[in-house]
């Protein structure tokens, strides 16, 4: 196994000539659980979009050492069209075809079974034939988490997965991520620093620049030096954990 899944080098991204990321460097390692923190507007989502090839960087490079289909992505549910008339099972299975529904309707048997297995493991067997438009926020996130697992990813990317979910699912979700982290790297953007401090292994502070911190224990001084505006959180179980919070490259290089 390569010692890095993804290498981001000197990545700069702008919107309307306004620099949002400036010479960002970040490596993602196998089985890392990387928490992305930083102030509002600091560029966290932009970093993820650049990783997914959804925004074009001005400079720098992103090298994948795994096939792109081995990157799972859980979008924010406000990016999902709830009017689309498709069942939970079909949505989950569509993860196999990169979100395209064409092949889903061929109902590949092995894929169907795997989708059912993921749904069962997520504890949502009862809603598998429901249309996605009928689901609550928490149910929707569970469904999309299943979908992001269809290709058995080596890297799972989640952008604020706790935004629209109920408290019960929030803790369930993080326990699930902890379990998944035994077999895949996780990159998690979250505003819930208390939770982050408990689950992540390493931290990246994103505020125009990116500072990787190879531990989940971070001091206020370090946060200040990373230019991450902060609010101190100490987690009960890890008394020394202190986290900060909030409230290109001309081409993508993909090496397999
Ligand atoms: N499509 C866009 N067009 C123009 N500006 C954008 C666009 N998307 C984001 N921005 C701007 O880029 C900056 C970084 O935004 P981004 O969403 O990456 O930050 P963030 O760290 O994820 O913020 P938050 O914590 O609020 O989600 C912000 O100033 C934002 O207004």
Automatic annotation (TrEMBL):
Keywords: ATP-binding, Nucleotide-binding, Transport. SUPFAM superfamilies: P-loop containing nucleoside triphosphate hydrolases. InterPro entries: AAA+_ATPase, ABC_transporter-like_ATP-bd, ABC_transporter-like_CS, Metal_Ion_Import_ABC, P-loop_NTPase. GO terms for molecular function: ATP binding; ATP hydrolysis activity. Residues 6-233 form the ABC transporter domain. Belongs to the ABC transporter superfamily. This is Zinc ABC transporter ATP-binding protein.
């Amino acid at each position: 196994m390569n010692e890095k899944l993804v290498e981001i080098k000197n990545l700069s991204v702008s919107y309307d000539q306004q620099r949002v990321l400036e010479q960002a460097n970040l490596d993602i390692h196998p089985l890392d659980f990387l928490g992305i923190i930083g102030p509002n507007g600091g560029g966290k989502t932009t970093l993820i979009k650049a990783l997914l090839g959804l925004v074009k960087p001005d400079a720098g490079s992103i090298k994948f050492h795994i096939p792109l289909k081995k990157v799972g992505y859980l979008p924010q549910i406000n990016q999902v069209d709830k009017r689309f008339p498709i069942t939970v099972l079909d949505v989950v299975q569509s993860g196999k075809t990169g979100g395209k529904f064409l092949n889903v309707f061929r109902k590949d048997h092995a894929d169907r079974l795997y989708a059912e297995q993921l749904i069962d493991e997520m504890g949502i067997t009862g809603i598998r034939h429901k249309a996605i438009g009928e689901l609550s926020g928490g149910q929707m996130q569970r469904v999309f988490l299943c979908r992001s697992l269809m290709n058995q990813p080596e890297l799972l990317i989640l952008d604020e997965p706790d935004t629209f979910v109920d408290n019960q699912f929030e803790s369930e979700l993080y326990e699930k991520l902890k379990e998944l982290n035994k077999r895949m790297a996780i990159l998690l953007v979250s505003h819930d620093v208390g939770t982050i401090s408990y689950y992540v292994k390493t931290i990246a502070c994103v505020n125009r620049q990116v500072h990787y911190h190879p531990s989940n224990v971070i001091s206020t001084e370090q946060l200040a030096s990373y230019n991450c505006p902060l609010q101190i959180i100490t987690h009960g179980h890890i008394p020394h954990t202190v986290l900060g919070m909030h409230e290109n490259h001309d081409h993508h290089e993909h090496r397999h």
